[in-house]
Design goal:
Layout: H1 4-33, H2 37-63, H3 83-110, H4 114-144, H5 148-159, H6 173-178
Helix pairs in contact: 1-2, 1-3, 2-5, 3-4, 4-5
Bound molecules: hydroxy diiron-OXO moiety.
Hydroxy diiron-OXO moiety binds next to helix 1, helix 2 and helix 3.
Length: 183
């Protein structure tokens, strides 16, 4: 069972995860548009990951007898000056999400909601990985500077990123996850 406060906070985070997906889909579209297929792939994989994050909240709210309440999503930015700007914005956004998850955890602790604390633990760990990935790519982009060859080499590396989470969300996250990674 969820308190009203927790239910509202979980729904807020569900919207933020959906916005994250929307933002990275926009970055993927921009990358395709400027001919960086590897970057486009990396952001498309990230889009799927964010949808997975969102659907885990969706499923948890339902599982606990709460009501999912969807809200309008803001329009994401569509133009970026450079790949470095995209990743700087990505890191900035992920830091915002980390703060948001931490806030949710503090609320769950204050309300003595142990189940929600356990549920959120996965996101706490995930955020460490997400920020670390972004920091690593930002460092690589800084080293590449304005060298087009170095940029294309990084583009090839990012093309290799594969989705490791299930994408059949309509079956429910748990059921889809039981089938293992998406092809
Ligand atoms: Fe990018 O971790 Fe969810 O939002």
């Amino acid at each position: 069972m969820l308190t009203k406060n927790i239910e509202e906070a979980l729904n807020g985070q569900l919207s933020r995860e959906l916005y994250s997906a929307y933002l990275y889909l926009s970055m993927s579209a921009h990358s395709t548009n400027i001919g960086l297929k590897g970057f486009a792939n990396w952001f498309m994989v990230q889009y799927h990951e964010e949808m997975f994050h969102a659907m885990k909240f969706y499923e948890y709210i339902n599982l606990q007898g709460g009501k999912v309440a969807l809200t309008a999503l803001a329009q994401p930015p569509a133009e970026f000056e450079s790949p470095l700007e995209m990743f700087t914005k990505t890191l900035e956004h992920e830091r915002f999400i980390t703060k948001s998850i931490n806030g949710l955890m503090e609320l769950a602790i204050a309300e003595k909601d142990h189940a929600t604390q356990i549920f959120l633990q996965w996101y706490v760990t995930e955020q460490v990985e997400e920020e670390s990935n972004d920091n690593e790519i930002i460092a690589r982009l800084r080293i590449a500077g304005s060298d087009p060859q170095a940029l294309m080499m990084l583009d090839r590396e990012l093309a290799a990123r594969m989705t490791t989470i299930p994408t059949e969300f309509s079956k429910g996250v748990q059921a889809a996850a039981a089938k293992g990674p998406a092809a």
